[in-house]
Specification:
By secondary structure, this protein is an alpha/beta fold. It has a single domain, classed as Isopropylmalate Dehydrogenase (3-Layer(aba) Sandwich). It contains 11 helices and 11 strands. Strands 8-7-9-6-5-10 form a 6-stranded mixed beta sheet, with helices on both faces. The longest helix is centred in the middle third of the chain and has 18 residues, at 155-172. The mean pLDDT is 95.
Length: 303
């Protein structure tokens, strides 16, 4: 059942990212094959000015494998993951980089450093993860949030997640995004807590005059299929036309995104937003196309 379809980078991300050429990015523990390949591709597209952080010898070895001459770039010598993460945070704090890219280190090491108050990288928002999902080069994106960072967020955290994804969707070119708050039903029922919370988020969004169409609860089919919404006689600005899926928990978002990747061949561009600089935190299993798309998405988020 797994797809053999080639995953392709969406044109809209590359074109939008090109509006800010050669943005400085920090590659933390850059001695990682897929990280270096995607960074080289991004550089050749005039998207980034890479700043390498980590073991210089290993970084040079990876670059040499790619026939990439990196002698003219800054390389900060750090021989353990913790120190490399600290250097990345310092560069972000000092406005020397606009995007952080995770290389060959555990995500929790990078995130623990990023969250330290001494680096002032959190500016009154909660961090959240966004998937920008596309199937073909000219595809309209579907955003899934949060599928990688906040495991079981409270209602107040979900409001941060909602605002973060709306802000990003606008930067991608969707003037007034349509947000479906997912549950297993289109009616709020006590036996399904996520449906009650979805209704609360919708009501809160209206009170706060959030500049988006926000509706919930909606089941997945009612959110993305006009036919399903029509059959069930669900009529609102979001049903069947959702741009954004706000999921009830990480398991839902993680599963949805990976189903799209492994069954449909979707390109999953994933970023963490809400801090001073966006973070590209890709999985070890992610393909080069998804890594390049994630870099482009982070550049857009940084604008």
């Amino acid at each position: 059942m797994l797809t053999s379809k080639n995953i392709v980078v969406p044109k809209n991300l590359i074109n939008l990212a090109k509006k800010t050429s050669l943005i400085p990015v920090g590659l933390v523990c850059a001695h990682h094959e897929s990280t270096m390949i995607s960074a080289k591709q991004a550089f050749e597209l005039s998207l980034i000015e890479p700043i390498f952080i980590g073991n210089k010898q290993l970084i040079m070895e990876e670059a040499n494998k790619l026939n990439w001459g990196i002698d003219s770039f800054q390389i900060f010598e750090e021989n353990n993951d913790q120190d490399a993460a600290i250097m990345g945070a310092k560069l972000a704090c000092e406005n020397k980089i606009k995007v952080l890219i995770k290389g060959n280190l555990h995500t929790d090491i990078l995130m623990r450093v990023y969250l330290k108050k001494e680096y002032s990288l959190i500016e009154g928002k909660r961090l959240s993860h966004i998937w920008h999902m596309t199937l073909i080069q000219d595809d309209k994106p579907l955003f899934i949030t949060d599928g990688a960072l906040n495991v079981a967020p409270r209602l107040d955290v979900k409001m941060h997640i909602l605002k973060n994804v709306i802000e990003f969707a606008k930067k991608v070119g969707i003037a007034k995004p349509r947000v479906a708050i997912l549950s297993g039903t289109e009616d709020p029922i006590e036996s399904m807590p996520s449906s009650i919370e979805a209704k609360e988020i919708m009501d809160k969004s209206k009170k706060e005059n959030i500049d988006a169409y926000v509706h919930g609860p909606l089941a997945f089919d009612n959110a993305i299929s006009p036919k399903a919404a029509q059959i069930k006689k669900i009529k609102n600005e979001v049903a069947g036309k959702a741009d954004i899926l706000l999921v009830p928990n990480l398991e839902t978002g993680n599963s949805l995104s990976k189903i799209m990747v492994y069954f449909l061949g979707a390109c999953a561009a994933g970023i963490i937003v809400g801090g001073k600089v966006p973070i590209v935190v890709t999985s070890r299993a992610d393909c080069t196309a998804s890594r390049l798309a994630s870099i482009a998405a982070a550049i857009i988020a940084a604008q």
